[in-house]
Amino acid sequence: MPTTAPAFSDATASDGALRRFLHGLPGVDAVGLEARAASLGTRSIKTTAKAYAIDLAISMIDLTTLEGADTPGKVRALAAKAVNPDPTDRTTPRTAAVCVYPDMVATAAAALAGSGVKVASVATAFPAGRAALDVKLADVRDAVAAGADEIDMVIDRGAFLSGHYLKVYEEILAVKAECARADGTDARLKVIFETGELSTYDNIRRASWLGMLAGADFIKTSTGKVGTNATPANTLLMLEAVRDFREQTGVQIGVKPAGGIRTSKDAIKFLVLVNETAGEDWLDNHWFRFGASSLLNDLLMQRQKLATGRYSGPDYVTVD
């Protein structure tokens, strides 16, 4: 069986060892966690700091379309927006990535070629993850072969909630192996927990450590397809996990909150969480992302307000 970071190799030696490790993690003080998240959300960010935060947030967006009605034309239009979010101001940063279903990866890759914007693809029977492992791995292989730079996989929440942690761990390992390319430019793996279905903060902490032990490059809150997605509290908890993991292993892991982050005010609150919890090293789109579709438009309107002194309104940004 493949091993994880040397500092934790014993923890993944067996199902029992993994269970003991995950259930041996400190319990989460839910009241304290939510109070700290709420307190950090009250920080006031003004003038030049706000302008910096807005540009940073734009550069961290995985601009996403994951609908049954997606077409090649819609994906090309989204790619054009990712490369040039505000045609009236070429100083506007590009987004980090465009995220699509596997069958749209080739279209996105062609549209983004040479731009520096990454192609991300959901996989492993997103969003429910209810498929056989060989089907999930084929989903990943297809996306990587078509040009995906990043893979967003969903864990088997049923297996996790049933306590079959080693099964989830081995599935992440298998998906990670499919992200490898012959030329060494492996696709980065984001592991989605669907925190709204994990029920407790203790489970979110356990899932975070499980994903990191299995080699996730990012841990991600949610699919955006359920009622409860990214929240300040669950993102704070995951930021604490990546901070502690790096302290113990030297390995840095990214974090991606997704779903429900729609306004500049929300995005800036999350950036404060990053800075105050994990630290400045995570204030970069290589280590922190927003999974969003509507957030970009609000950031653009706020950016235009800072530049001109007035709101331009939604008619001055594209409708995705």
Give the topology, please:
Layout (H helix, E strand, L loop, with lengths): L14 H9 L6 H11 L6 H13 L1 E4 L7 H12 L13 E4 L4 H8 L5 E6 L9 H14 L3 E5 L2 H5 L3 H14 L9 E5 L8 H13 L4 E3 L11 H18 L4 E3 L7 H14 L12 E3 L2 H14 L12
Parallel strand pairs: 1-2, 1-8, 2-3, 3-4, 4-5, 5-6, 6-7
Helix pairs in contact: 2-10, 3-11, 3-12, 4-5, 6-8, 9-10, 10-11
Describe this structure in words.
The protein is of the alpha/beta class and 320 residues long. Helix content is 45%, strand content 10%. It has 12 helices and 8 strands. Strands 7-6-5-4-3-2-1-8 form an 8-stranded parallel sheet. Helix 3 packs antiparallel against helix 12, helix 4 runs parallel beside helix 5 and helix 9 packs parallel to helix 10. The protein is globular. It starts with 14 loop residues before the first helix and ends in a 12-residue tail after the last helix. The model has no long low-confidence stretch (mean pLDDT 94).
- Which blocks of ≥5 consecutive residues have pLDDT under 50? none
What portion of the residues fall into strands of 2 or more residues? Answer: 5-15%
Count every helix, treating DSSP H or I runs of 4 or more residues as helices: 12
Give a count of the beta strands, DSSP E runs of length 2 or more.
8
Overall spatial form: globular
Proportion of residues in helical segments: 40-55%
Features:
eight-stranded parallel β-sheet, 320 residues, single chain, 8 strands, alpha/beta
Brief sketch in words of this structure:
Helix content is 45%, strand content 10%. It is α/β, with parallel strands linked by helices. The mean pLDDT is 94.
